[in-house]
Specification:
The chain contains 16 helices and 4 strands. The protein is mainly α. The radius of gyration is 27 Å and the shape is globular. The termini are far apart.
Length: about 375
């Protein structure tokens, strides 16, 4: 093991490749072998949250933008995918409108539903629309130099407004949302093999997203983003527009959230306003903060860990999990600002400092003993 470690240190480029290799083995080989179909589907859901968290890590951890409204972009991608799947199921059954519309008394398909009957159009909308909304919102906010708590409140209000809007729209499922999907681009969702395929798609997407975020962090743009976070006025003095730098990070985070929402819909089988409002947006943020927002893997592992703990502990402590989550968040923010990912460097530095403080001081070299007769002879 020590020889392998020394070799990785000698070749720094091998370290990320080894990390991606280990992650790929765990996700594509170990997880399907040891987890049941139910647990594997649950992990696929957590991977969707991790994709959102990776984008938040870029915008918040590197850019200092407290994004409390990622549920908006998550919901855009999720609802577009849900609308396409509903229309595909209706066409397969020979119906003009989805079944929930027939139950609600809607006999004619609304106009904004019609473009999403096409699979390519739905995919393009998932990839473009969240980023476009983020670009428009970011331009209006960052160009006016809105930042800090004001930006956080504004983004949170946007998430609340979207959830309230969707709740009152019966043409999009209303409060109950959209569910009962039968197929995903022609693949039956009732088939366990196709469910496993969805897990592989989510796992592969997460690895690509982590690689993208790593490349952005190591690029010149990543350095500018950190500079804007730490000294925005100095960056402006050097001739850069901090608003444009922030907009790019905000758009990338929204783009990733939209993809995660589109994957979430067929994996979970339902999307509703409760999945995209204020509470889910804060839950995304809690996972990033606990994992370590300034690190590459901290947001990803934090989101997966918090989601897993919520699912596991809420079964045993249904009324106490919320308080446990809040306490954990306060402890991490108050005492471990770098998150759980920053514990190891912190402990390592403390151990190293303790060793240096307890090490005996270096002794001065002893002077050579010269005999008296030799001194006289030398004179």
């Amino acid at each position: 093991m020590s020889a392998l470690t020394e070799r990785l240190r000698a070749y720094p480029r091998l370290t990320p490749l080894a990390g991606f290799g280990v992650a790929a083995i765990l996700l594509f080989a170990v997880a399907p072998a040891v987890l049941s179909d139910f647990r594997l589907n649950l992990l696929a859901k957590f991977l969707c949250f991790a994709i959102v968290a990776a984008g938040i890590g870029l915008a918040w951890g590197r850019g200092g933008m407290l994004t409390l409204g990622q549920g908006v972009f998550f919901g855009i991608g999720a609802y577009i995918m849900a609308m396409h799947m509903q229309l595909a199921d209706a066409a397969r059954l020979g119906n003009d409108v989805p079944e929930f519309m027939e139950i609600s008394g809607i006999s004619e398909l609304p106009g904004f539903w019609q473009p999403f009957a096409s699979g390519p159009v739905a995919i393009i909308a998932i990839l473009v629309l969240p980023g476009l909304v983020a670009a428009v919102l970011g331009y209006g906010v960052f160009k006016r130099r809105v930042r800090g708590a004001y930006f956080a409140i504004l983004s949170q209000a946007l998430a609340a407004a979207l959830a309230i809007l969707l709740t009152g729209q019966q043409a999009i499922g209303g409060f109950t949302g959209l569910s009962d999907f039968r197929a995903f681009f022609g693949f039956k969702l009732s088939d366990p093999v196709n469910r496993q395929m969805l897990f592989f798609i989510a796992a592969g997407t997460l690895l690509v997203v982590v690689a993208l975020i790593r490349q952005l962090n190591r690029s010149r743009y990543g350095e500018l983003l950190v500079a804007v976070r730490d000294a925005e006025e100095r960056v402006r003095f050097l001739g850069y527009d901090p608003a444009n730098i922030k907009i790019v990070a905000y758009v990338v985070a929204a783009f990733l959230a939209g993809i995660a929402g589109a994957l979430f819909t067929p994996i979970v089988g339902i999307i509703s306003p409760a999945d995209i409002g204020v509470i889910p947006s804060i839950a995304f943020l809690i996972g990033v903060a606990i994992g370590g927002r300034t690190t590459l893997l901290g947001p990803v592992l934090g989101a997966i860990g918090v989601a897993w703990a919520q699912t596991s502990l809420s079964e045993s402590f249904p009324s106490g999990w919320t308080y446990m989550q809040g306490i954990l968040f306060i402890v991490v923010v108050g005492f471990i600002p770098a998150g759980l990912a920053g514990l190891w460097p912190l402990l390592r530095d403390r151990v190293r400092a303790r060793r240096e403080s307890t090490a005996p001081p270096p002794t001065a070299p002893a002077e050579p003993v010269v005999d008296t007769e030799e001194k006289v002879a030398a004179r």
